[in-house]
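Dear support,

I submitted the protein below through the web form. The confirmation email said the job was done, but the results page showed an empty box. After a refresh the structure appeared. I'm attaching both so you can tell me whether what I see now is the final result or a partial one.
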Amino acid sequence: MTGLAVVTGMGHAVPASATQQELWDGFFDRYYGGRALARRIFAAAGVQTRHAVANPLDEDLSAWSTGARMDRYVAESMPLAKQAVSQALADAGLAAGDIGLFAVASCTGYSTPGVDIRLARDLGMSADLQRLFVGHMGCYAAVPALGAVTDFVSARGRPGVLLCLELTSLHVQPPCDDVDQIVSHSLFSDAAAAVVVEPGAADGFDVVDVVARTDVSTADHMTWDVTDLGFRMGLSPRVPDVLKKHVRSVVTGMLDRHGLSTEDIAAWAVHPGGPRILDVVGEQLALSTSAMAPSRRVLAEHGNCSSATVLLVLSEAARDVGTGGHLVMMAFGPGLTLYAALLRRR
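What the results page shows now:
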């Protein structure tokens, strides 16, 4: 894949914001009955601001049916998707009609016709456009989806666009004492992020490699179940321990194939699944505070936006990479699965 598929444009869009403290004081304090544990989890989440199409300060969706939430997903998704993709196309200097593949990743909403068809129509993409929807992979979906777009661009010689669109605010759950639900409610946020990939472009980031590791023995550690009241997250506190076991071998194995070490990497785009996950990745790869700063900044300013998050971090981290420099992006999710990609600045 080296040199054939190049990330040339990036864009993102977020809905209206609220601070973590406002969300606690105005909704979740009452929602959790002032429970001290919930207050501590919210305070320690590393999040300062979150974005939501369904702000719990204005409306409580916790008793809504899944059908009603999916109707809301259709209504709310298009403006964010259009803004993110249009921004990425403008950044790359391409028109919508130039695109050969439009891939959409989302685990927070489904409809047919989907966002891929609706947005392709509204932006004026070609009638012979190929489309791909990547569903329910969770937080790591951006990386395998980028790999699929890269393969298309390399094989077909036509540009592709990847959109990650996640509206987690539509899935607030009824009140309960489960710690995993408290953690989820303290972290997750809404965003749309897009990248454009072109064949052989003169400027941008070569997608050099994509790798994966799934530990099927820990499949129950992270789940995302469809229920009658939206999608429910299951999140074991043992997730950082599993990542601790695998992250170094996955990353160094990928780098070894290209004659690189962690010291050769100019920037890191690590999915900020939570503060403990970032701590583990930083410790296992011996990364500096500055190397982890883009991930912690995105966590603070946006929260965890599922698959869109690592693309937000990529946009931040890319600024620190000069010509010929390398960047590693990685994300984690159900499976328990770790995906990583190696990019090189042209």
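Response: this is the final, complete result; the empty box was a page-load delay. The chain is about 40% helix and 25% strand.
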